[in-house]
Amino acid sequence: MKYTFLTSNEITPTGWVRRQLELEAAGLCGNLDKVWPDVRDSAWIGGDREGWERVPYWLDGFVPLAYLLGDKDMIARAGRYIEAILAGQSDDGWICPNGAVPREKYDTWAIELISKVLFVYYDCSGDERIPGAVYRALKNWYEGLSNGTFRLFNWAKSRWFETFVALNRLAEIYGKEEWMTDMARILREQGTNWLAESDRWDTWYNNWTYETHIVNIGMMMKAEAVSCGLLGEKYRDDAEKLYKTLTKYHGSPVGAFHGDECLSGRSPIRGFELCSVVELMYSYEWLFAVTGDSKWAERLEKVAFNALPATVSDDMWTHQYDQTTNQNACRFQKGKPIFGTNGREAQLFGLEPEYGCCTANFGQGWPKLALSSVMRSERGLRVVTPIPTKVGIVHKGVPVSLEVLSDYPFKNEISFIVEAEADTDFELEYNIPSFAKNAKVFGKNVPAGPVHIAEFRAGRTEIRVSFDTVPEIRRTTGNLYSLRCGSLVFALPVKTRWEKTEYVRNRVERKYPFCDYNLVPESDWNYGFAGKEQKLEIERKGSGAVPFSSTEAPVTISVDAAKIDWGLEPGYKYVCAAHPRNLQRTDEAEKIAFVPYGCAKLRMTELPFASEKK
Fold this sequence. Notes:
The chain is built from 18 helices and 27 strands. The protein has about 625 residues and is an alpha+beta fold. Strands 5, 16, 17, 18, 23, 24, 25, 26 and 27 form a 9-stranded antiparallel sheet that branches. A 7-stranded antiparallel sheet has the order 2-8-9-10-15-12-13. Helix 1 crosses helix 4 and helix 15 runs parallel beside helix 18. The mean pLDDT is about 95.
């Protein structure tokens, strides 16, 4: 690996990032063990509810969230689950609560997941029992795989590479033992060959398969990066080939890939699942750590600053299963859903619309972004994305701290403050993004690309960086275009009425604030851009208490737009047409403040250019 991840003991989120994490802690992720039976009463802690992926998914976000915020109550609650998981491990190493299901018929995706999550806890807590527990769990699983008792199937087969997150750590701690490299070989041989599967991604099908499942694909992007070391293979950047294929046939303006649940083309009214968003972010974090290539950092920002906040309510108590870029309403869809393999409530904001995997899993997005914003290099620290944070490390015996002061991506003025207790050869690396204009360091113009500053004197050093980002309208698909400025995509916001629904289903209560909502439009959404050559005026207000607020946007762009006869998708009462039926203006052009995509829960993101009114 070119860079290594920091732990919650070394990095502290500040500014808008800390506010976002506090919202998450006060919302659904921070309270799921209190309100949701699949976590509260899980078989992982001796209960009678789901004992497979949901508790590990939840802990994957809840644990780093608790430790990043230093919340003693949350840390204690996480510890309760870890204690139960460790206590439930069998003498032979088996760690999952398979109940009446024979081990050989249990989908061992849960082993892959819990092993990774236990190391998340280890990095945060320093609990020295964890490596041994994971060693026994994976060694037990390996023995079953090697003698034929177990084989990979279903989810474990699709996600075989996830095991390497923990397996790599075991190799670091205990040394690369023969069984570890043999297990790596078995996993790759029995697992899905994703490079081969990508040959059929040039279209989409309305049928469900593991090989086109969008969450599997989001996870899979890091497969080569995490596995090549133990497999003894040279890194080839297969992820870039996969990225280009997915972008060409299933890409969206916000960097996520369409899949509801399976790959679904490029239509702005087809969705992409929230789990796929946070897993794609995690893959990009790994890809950057392994390669050091800034393209993955920029792609991470695009997904994190747009797709993630767009699909979760401001208070982070409710979320969608599927979001769409053109989302003029989010309502229960009577009749056949617009989505390929998802149901009628997939677009609602709620406790567990469509399926509970996203309920458990979405919480990892913000904490892992915070942990990945700065990484350790052999010579010092590398800023991956200049969001506000503080880092403290010891470099060659010298305590060194780094503070990133910024309101990025809402504003583009950044200060890196390095404090060293003695003269040091510590090196700070950061990147001027490819989309930056007029970039300056210490007031001097610099080109886009990596910047290295080494040799720091004892005391405090401040490095000031600034650059411009220019709004631009880019073609997306067909005759549709989107507005982008730096890492942020902008959308026309639609005034929204939240219609609350409280009920009980399958013994699970939906009750405010974790109830379900239909989102109903209360303003016009049928617009097109009025003129290809227009002045796009940007106003940067800065982030507030809710960074991606749906009522107080941190930055806006003034756009000339005009109403058109857009129409609804045939057969649907609340879904806008994939492409407008008429581009001619029905009214005069007007100035409209477009907001960051993540701020608008109802929005129109992909618009045509409206033709002149006759």
